[in-house]
Amino acid sequence: MTAAWVVRQGRGGQFADEMIRDGYIGVDFIGDYDIRPHLGGGAEVFRGAMNSVYLGMYPDKTKVAAGLAMGNLWAASEGIAVGDLVLAPKPDRTYQYGIVAGGYEYHPGTELPHRRPVDWKGSISRDDMSPTLASTAGVPMTVFQLEAHTAELATLTQLADPAAPAVQVISTEVQEQLAFQMEKQLEDFLVHNWANTSLGREYDIYEEDGQPAGRQYPSDTGPMDILAISKDRTRLLVVELKRGRASDAVVGQIQRYMGFVHNELLEPGQSVEGVIIAQEDDLRIQRALSVTRNIRFMKYRVEFHLEEA
């Protein structure tokens, strides 16, 4: 198991029983359109070909919606590798889990025509997950990767390799998971309290069809932590979160995301801005930002109080 993913099988897991019975995961997004000629070249090639197809089918949609839909479709069809673990949420707070057993298959005339065969192994309860994993797995997106949770999932699903060098692997993965958890908790807190922040007074986290779509928005250089849009719909905002002290490397990272937004997502009359959120900065990042347009730096503060009962 090299990576783990969540793939939602319709709203509320409405197709989960069929999926388990027939041994697949599937998505829709673009209906009965054969995407096979556009696979094999990576996410950027796929989106370059398919975004215009999507917008032609749904002219009322935005470029942001097209990028999200086609990014999810590519991830389900090609981004998930054979041998990866997939979790499919079911309505009863359990997740069916299995191993992807093959490449893309096209099944026109079905509710979920874009499929991958899966060897389903069993199910795990959301209640057995750590709070961080449960929070991450509960994000209402159709397809997304469960980064830094493979060690916990290997234990929960009993798919760990007994011959693997457990001490070294666990040591490395625990360090990565702890670092990821801190940033994930910061993201969760910011999203849940967005309306009460200064950013929330100017921007809304991007939504599509009433569903949150601005968390971990896919780009060709990695997922953005948060993509937001100004209340007058004229500015897109890329939010990059860092635990502790931010280094000047994050400036290049957020510029790459902003470049993607500028080139691929902006509608006429729109602009893109960025904000880096961390606990501390330093002289190097101050210097980098002093000659960088449209990127702000904001600090977060963690407080801990004890009160008499």
TrEMBL record:
Top-level taxon: Bacteria
Keyword Cell inner membrane included in the entry's annotation: no
Residues of the Endonuclease NucS C-terminal domain: 202-298
Keywords: DNA-binding
Pfam families (UniProt xref): NucS_C
DNA-binding as UniProt keyword: yes
Protein name stated in the entry: Restriction system protein
